[in-house]
Design a protein that fits this description.
Chain lengths: 382, 243, 389
Amino acid sequence: MVPLAYNYRNLQVRWKTTLMTAFGFTLVVAALVIMLAFLNGIEAACIASGEPENVILLSKGNQDEVLSQMERPLVAQVENSKGVAVDAAGRPLASRELFLAVHHRPPEGDEFHFLQVRGVLPAAFRVHSQLHLLSGRTFRPGQSEVMIGKGVQRTHHFQIGDTLEIGRKQWQIVGVFESRGAAFESELWCDLNELASQFRRDGLYSTVVLRAETPQGAEELAERLRNSRSVSVEALTEPKYYQKQAEQTRLLQTAAWVIAWFMGLGALFGVMNTQFAAIGQRSKEIAVLRILGFPARAILLSFLIEALGIAAVGGSFGVALGAAANGVTRSFSLGARSIDFAFRVDGPIVVCAGIFALLMGLLGGLLPALSAMRVKPLEALR
Amino acid sequence: MSAQPLIVVDNVAKEYMRGSERIVVLRDVNLEIAAADFVALIGPSGSGKTTLLNLIAGLDQPTSGRIWFDGLEISKLDEARLARWRTNAVGFVFQFFHLIPVLTAYENVELPLLLLNLTARRRREQVLMALDLVGLSHRLHHRPGQLSGGEQQRVGIARALVTDPKLIVADEPTGDLDHVKSGEILDLLQSLQQELQKTILLVTHDPAAAARARRVLRIDKGTLVEDRSMHSGRFRLFEWTVQ
Amino acid sequence: MKVLLLILKNLRRNKLRTTLTALAVIVMVVLCTEAATVLFWVHQHVHTQACQSKLLVSERWVAPSCIPTRYLALLTHQEGVEDWTLWNLYTGYLDTSRQSSRKGFGLATRPDNLIAMHLGLEKLDPAAVEALQREKTGAIVSADLMQQMNWKVGQQFTVLSSSHPHKDLRFKIVGVLPPGEYVRNFFFRQDYYEEGTGNKETITCVWLRLRDAETAQRVASRIQKQFQHSQPELKVETESAGVARFVSREQALLSVLKWVVAVLVLDMAIVLSNSISVATRERRVEMAVLKVLGFEPVVIMALVVGEAMLLGAVSGFVGAALAWLSSTLAVHGFLPSNPATRIFFSFPIQAAMVLWGALLGALVGFMGSIVPAWNAWQVKVSDVFAKIA
């Protein structure tokens, strides 16, 4: 095998070209990492949103809370389904919820923003067990008070004590909560009845979330309700529901990879160019190596390693650069709702990006290396 | 001198096709070279001397005829086996040195040893020995660019020597050097033949270089036209200048 | 002219290098063209005049909006309103699989001024509108849906409604929407909507067209004030403000897209720069000779910059042309429908983008040639010949 020092020093000697070519890889790999981290973050937020013991019910034909409408008799009926856990007082663990996307216009400025408001009853805090108050307190029933998710606080810069105009009333912010990065963090929670009367939705609910004793029980409960002849509802366990929401990013996933491959192809041609030029300059050296007895495949390997070296260096910097996006928070619209998420760079993404870079290096290096292998020693030295 | 010749060239011809035109470079070459001999191949440009050198060194295959090296018919070997054989049996010295510019003197000399199954320690010993032989022990870690032309050619010779081959071929080894440096290189080659019993095959234009040989072969238009042994090891310069 | 000839000759010297560089730029420009189309779309919709003189009236607080039909007369008789239309959203699944990828979004509207009131329908065949006026159950369907569902004009389809439970409607396709603005949509008649769903009381939103942006602002605030104490209250915004709000929800996506474009441009410049650098390094001696012959350094720089810009421009042109071609083929159904080609239904590439691609390529070529041109400028006659000797 041709010593690695040979490749290393050659890369060093033409360091400007090496760095430039590697930088091309850096950019492409960084872009890939950021795109994947973006999608990964959304998926993570969706997965975090589901508790496996919970079953979410929507009106028949709807897959999204925004459009779902259920009436009181139906809700009362499903709450007493077999398999729903009960609290100490013997009441079923069921959370009736009214989810509204309302337009909000800050006092200064005339642009509308969406606010996602969820009206809930006290049972909600037992059903959504991951929800924790960060500061302030929970809203009081019958009062125009809201608590806001961490994400809302971040994007709209609301503070405890601020008032918001929603509908005809001024609502006071009394608390901030978090929920393991879940979709709820992008919402404002308030008293269900207060919200319903405000928007004349009395007796109407978007959803009912039922809590079962176990994840297994939740699966069965959902299955039973879906197949029930007496009630007509959509029933999904929470993880399945949010997973379905995350599926909307499938198209973006494809787009990300299409973009990455196109960019990679560009970088690949770049590395090909560099390597062809290198081989052109070093054809005499190759000839000497062959005359000394190095077999053609050693030459092939040597030049492949050189291309891989460029890809590896560029790729590592790319991963590092892309990883800088880790934890950056943004909001993203999923269907009719928007969720806050954090870019998430994790092991699989790093591995993926690494393999991608090496593959591009390999493909880009192969053709030039093959041509290096075919250098005719006697002709090259003439 | 052993009875068995090291190299036997039997009725060798070499032709090339250039477009539809057939060019005969060598024809009917018959030759034996004894081990530990110092042979100079001379002749005008395009006479085919380098081609003959390449054939004997296993860099090229004859169109017809056969070549034996130490009892092995090398004109029958395929390319891969030829390459392996070359590493062990032949050392090459080039006109333009052809050292790898990014590698140090030491690493350049070590290069052919990487093809053999040697321990690192053994490699080191051999490299140091070869560089010592050419008098460059003090410049191990210099790159070719930091060495003079004469020094570069010594590194080239050390690289040819390091695998301990029976034959060292040198194609115009002094062609790119001045008079003084040429003399030093030729002294070195001569000492390799005399002290280490290496067989030297030298292609040259330079009468002074040819004068160091014990046997001079002259090629013209693809055939051997003269074969002269110089028992004294000295060649009479004026004979050549006359011709 | 002579310089150009020399540049062309130089490009032909190492065909492999020129080809590889061109390929790299072409591939990246293809991507850039589509990304830029998306970004241009956003920019255009937020900033054009047409969008600023059109008002969207919807319910003040809650989405999806729901306006009583009785408001309609009050809205359309506002002073300054030149034309108006309305929408009623009717969504549902297009087949029994009920997958979200098979969802369609119907818009019930007025057929008579369909083209005039909707952005992006300029290219809609007037015959389709006439057919819609004749056929009560008619629908004009987006090219995207037509291709995905493999529908033909004249065919009928049923929507399994999710927005109006148990009110599944059957439509007859009378025309196809041009690709671009409306992707998963189909237009149908408001009277059929009222009849089929039984909903005569509410509408989703109302569009008003005003003379100019200024009038639009005035009318907007007048309406807002007028309905301030009604239940439900109304929200009025210009079309561009609506788009801006929509876009701001996709801000994360758009910023990623902008990054992608930046990376592509930089990457192209790098590839070009590398390639031109190698070429100039090979030609140092020639450049020195040219200097000896009396060529000014500016001419030598021009050779380098010109080579990079020409290569960039031609590659950019080819790349953008390829993108435009794939977009056009996809939109006309010559390419199989897959997630990658579907993007062209939302953001079809305009023919003018081909020129834009050439310009981008030239710009990138210029960026990439700065360093090599500087090196060429620096070539000293004495240095080069000293090295050769």
